[in-house]
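Customer ticket, subject: "Can you confirm the structure for Monovalent cation/H+ antiporter subunit D family protein?"

Message body: Hello, I'm evaluating your service for our small team and ran a test protein. I'd like someone to confirm that this is what the system normally returns, since I don't have a reference to compare against.
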Amino acid sequence: MSAIALAICVPLVTAVGIQLAARWSDNLREAVTLVGAATLAWVVWGMLPDLFAGERPALMLGELMPGVTLAFEVEPLGMLFAALASGLWIINSIYSIGYMRGNKEKKQTRFYTCFALALAATMGIAFAGNLLTLFLFYEMLTLSTFPLVSHKGDEATVKSARVYLSILLCTSIGLLLPAIIWTYHVAGTGDFTAGGILEGNISGADVGLLLALFVFGVGKAAVMPVHRWLPAAMVAPTPVSALLHAVAVVKAGVFTVTKVIVYVFGVDFLFATPSAGWLVYAAAFTIIAASLVALRQQNLKRLLAYSTVAQLSYVVMAAAVLKPLAEIGAAIHMVAHAFGKITLFFAAGAIYTAAKKTELHQLRGIGRRMPWTMAAFTIGALSMIGVPPTGGFVSKWYILAGSFQADNLVAIFTIIISTVLNAAYFLPIIFMAWFVDEPPGGKEHGEAPPLVVLALSLTALLTLGFFFFNGPVIQLEQQLVQEMLR
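Agent reply: Thanks for trying us out. I re-ran your input and got the following:
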């Protein structure tokens, strides 16, 4: 069996194993989860040497209809997404065990099963060789995460989960699917091809319209106004929030938008087509507007949700700048944001588990009771702002360099303004946690369970380490640039 098939099958087998193991014991169920996560990482990361050597592993499972196949291919951007998701699944599983036990959550077997199914869908998206294959696994990811978002089962949670499901399904079926059909109609293929497949097959205003169908059809990228599903999904347990914001769902969105720009439209074709220029402005508006909304939030998870909406559009804007350095920056920001934001959500979940605190005003002095957690939160927040030595500085540097390369003043000023806004809503939390006295009569508590603290410490270290050790990612994405310039 090929490595691509294994990457998709391992999470599926893990899901079955979780169901079977749960009949014997919770410990065995969680062991199966960890073994499945480690095995997936071993399979995915094992493909890296071939990719660095210039090979492009591929797999074709069959023809769904004349000219339309279920096909997979490994390329630099997809490899980065798959490696990131598979690696973080291990840490998220460690965190989940501590969190779910610490909060005595119900339906844990269903939780771990759906989590594994979501990773299978993520692998399918990452390695999709054409638009239809990507669409099928994109929908599988939406459906497999709905039970996770609605996990608590109360009326308010189910209502919010329905918002999550309806927005993502309506955008994908109503906009993304027509865009895919249109592409197959005009180009005769939906295969992801270096340099794109649309040049000479579509022109003028139609290019901008097709791009809009793709961008807003990929609701998981959360470009305004199709972003409301993301704050609505904050009713989910924190490990699910981490899945949504760092491991799979939102990364599937910005990955898809970037891949469509590079491998369907082609950056040179888009750069030469004036009707496509709106995307930079849409992404810039989303960044600034979401940052302003985040500034007004008093609930920690909602603040982080709107921060994610803004940070995602950094990737979209960087891809839309259509310059090599910016495209590298888009890919790097996927990684930097994943490490930083999963750390922030892990910290929020740790605070809830140990102290049942969810609002910003409740965090006064909490750094003294939970120093490990708040140290990790501080590192994650500084990465979102873009302060060295964190991974967020590296990605913003490349995006800014690409914006200067394109003389794109909109992108340049958006990065500057949004960085100030990021600091405006994160630095007061850090200050309050470390330098403001805790109010009298507060609940006695310490750190969250050890597995929770271990997981958030690991992701905080990754956030710092990525500042110093980002060479392999840059080397991988330079292959993407070379394919862009063909």
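A couple of notes from the result: DSSP finds 21 helices and two strands in the chain. The two ends are 32 Å apart (CA to CA). Feel free to reply with more questions.
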